[in-house]
């Protein structure tokens, strides 16, 4: 069985842990009332705030800029203001019908929690369920569901599978391109690349 966290770390290179802070996670979890998945936390601590392959953004709970808690709160607020019951959604556009949800809520114990995004408008939501990880991805009025760990989702995203919807692959051959997201005014981080991955 594949250890997807180890496989992703091998693609991205040595963990940097620039902002790793267990107290920041404790504060965030207390505020949210849920626990974010351990593999997600490990990847965020290892690299975030980071842009991966020019598209995927991961924020961190211990930074002022690209702060994960602020990202989650602001995204929940925006999505909670959408009048879902008033929208004339087709069956393939309504996440309630697609994924068997009794209701569509954001930031609630059984609701959707935004944990990552891309510059293409894709948002990766964690569905807070006690049994197994479940991720719903929204992109341009389409939805995709993945009942896998975040590390497996990221691994498959990086090898070019359609992880944010049909025909959504963002595959770039060669090493993974990484760039720290700026955490102060005027900062312009230079990109670097992970190890060769033979693809």
From TrEMBL:
Gene3D superfamilies per record: SMI1/KNR4-like
Occurrences of domain Knr4/Smi1-like (ranges): 19-156
Protein name as catalogued: Knr4/Smi1-like domain-containing protein
Organism: Streptomyces hundungensis
């Amino acid at each position: 069985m594949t250890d997807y966290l180890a496989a992703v770390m091998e693609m991205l290179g040595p963990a940097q842990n620039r902002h790793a802070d267990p107290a920041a996670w404790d504060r965030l979890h207390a505020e949210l009332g849920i626990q974010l998945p351990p593999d997600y936390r490990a990847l965020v601590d290892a690299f975030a705030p980071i842009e991966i392959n020019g598209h995927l953004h991961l924020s961190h709970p211990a930074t002022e800029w690209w702060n994960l808690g602020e990202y989650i709160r602001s995204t929940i607020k925006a999505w909670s203001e959408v009048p879902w019951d008033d929208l004339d959604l087709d069956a393939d556009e309504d996440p309630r019908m697609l994924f068997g949800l009794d209701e569509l809520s954001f930031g609630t114990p059984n609701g959707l929690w935004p944990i990552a995004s891309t510059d293409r408008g894709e948002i990766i939501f964690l569905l807070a369920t006690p049994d197994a990880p479940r991720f719903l991805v929204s992109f341009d009025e389409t939805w995709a569901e993945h009942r896998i760990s975040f590390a497996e989702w990221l691994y498959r995203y990086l090898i070019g599978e359609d992880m944010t919807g049909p025909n959504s692959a963002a595959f770039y051959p060669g090493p993974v391109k990484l760039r720290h997201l700026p955490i102060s005014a005027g900062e312009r981080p230079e990109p670097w690349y992970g190890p060769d991955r033979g693809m």
